[in-house]
Known about the structure:
It contains twelve helices and 13 strands. With 342 residues, the chain is α/β, with parallel strands linked by helices. Helix 8 links the parallel strand 7 and strand 8 (217-221). 6-O-phosphono-beta-D-fructofuranose (F6P) binds next to loops. Its cofactor is Mg(2+).
Amino acid sequence: MRVGVLTGGGDCPGLNAVIRGIVRKGVQEYGYDFTGFRDGWRGPLEGDTVRLDIPAVRGILPRGGTILGSSRTNPLKVEGGVRRVQENLAAEGIDALIAIGGEDTLGVAAALHQEHGVKVVGVPKTIDNDLSATDYTFGFDTAVNIATEAIDRLHTTAESHMRVLVVEVMGRHAGWIALHSGLAGGANVILIPEQRFDLDQVCAWVESRFKIRYAPIVVVAEGAMPKDGDMVLKDGTLDSFGHVRLSGIGEWLANQIEKRTGKEARTTVLGHVQRGGTPSAFDRWLATRFGLHAVEAVRDGDFGKMVALRSTEIVRVPIGDATARIKTVDPSLYEEAGVFFG
Ligand code: F6P
């Protein structure tokens, strides 16, 4: 049995731990051979492979990024893409494929399985934690820890200068990182994409914080939007690689707060720092278990499925369950955090 492995979409701490779990269990327990595909779906599309055996996965558990490389290539959007993927998988002698990725990568996996009979098992990943059907994705815990540490540090500099500090965290469609790091870091305002915010209310919270002689920390997810939408965001613009760019909300917010309250404000955009570097212990644990269970699903011939965390159990769900809709922050969870605002 030869199993192909690929990592697609934005990278995420824990990808290497999944790859190591897959290869260690597959080789040691089932005697499988593995082929790594480079850069997500680009690998099978172009027949670009990399050696994947026990020596190749030695020492990679604590390393961020992915030894296989990643890209957002989508073979469904390439003329003749599906046929080329099928031909290259056949040429490499691939019996089954494990695709590790988010919404887009797994969407391709689901379509290739359902419409073209490709034998795929999915593994969910994203620092945003916005994939349905799994309680958590690996990478999220690491990102929240990085953002929380940044907020802790920003409190002390904000208080020394009695400034407002706005922290922009990742999360285009869901505010999980903002909510968790905001609560863990004791932020005074948390703004998420799921709930449009009222700028007057944000300024009132900021001012009330100054009244008790504390400097406010505002955590804003990159996809958060004001109610009146009177802002100039680079929303929806595509960069030269065709990726959507959403940067700008943190800077815009700090300017508005400064203008309206007369208090000095600064912005910190955490950006890709949240995605890089070594994974947390929780993410290594979750990613490793996902890898072990993915290779078990291959052994069982349970294709078209994705491994998922339910409480402390790893279960298998149809890949489509994860990609059909994103998992957003429930309004009651956001309301619960509201007691700390202002
Ligand atoms: O992985 C998801 C995500 O981290 C989003 O929160 C963010 O908007 C996006 O990736 C940025 O990805 P890139 O810069 O790689 O296009």
